[in-house]
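#structure-requests
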Amino acid sequence: MKKIITAFLAILFFGMLLNCSSRNNREPHVQREWMLISFGDFTKDQLIKKKAKIDLTAEKEGGKIKGSAFMGCNRIFFTMEFKNKRKVKISGLGSTEMMCNDMNLETLFLESFEKMTKYSVDGHFLTLTDDKGNVMKFVAADWD
């Protein structure tokens, strides 16, 4: 009986060990590339023309995702942490510093993005909201 219990515990332990080591450190519901489709007074066509997007495909490090964004001119980088109860914390926002003809979208995005505090995922849509009710809506880039 003692051998059976020992064997059972060994199998259980190794099974848990394999499961933990093979577990991907990703959250597939948010860790994808997202195209911006609704933000401020910009039309969906304007956002598509600028190829406005955020990329959250990086592996999580310490519970945080090192993300990037593009709003038509500069490369934008940030850290994003998704918390319980649909809270999000965005920090470390920065960008390259090229001058472009039309930087209105990028400027407003940089002013607004770090203020987003809540998120929701509904199907293939990601919505970020700040405490004043301002909204950024994205659609998954891999969705047809």
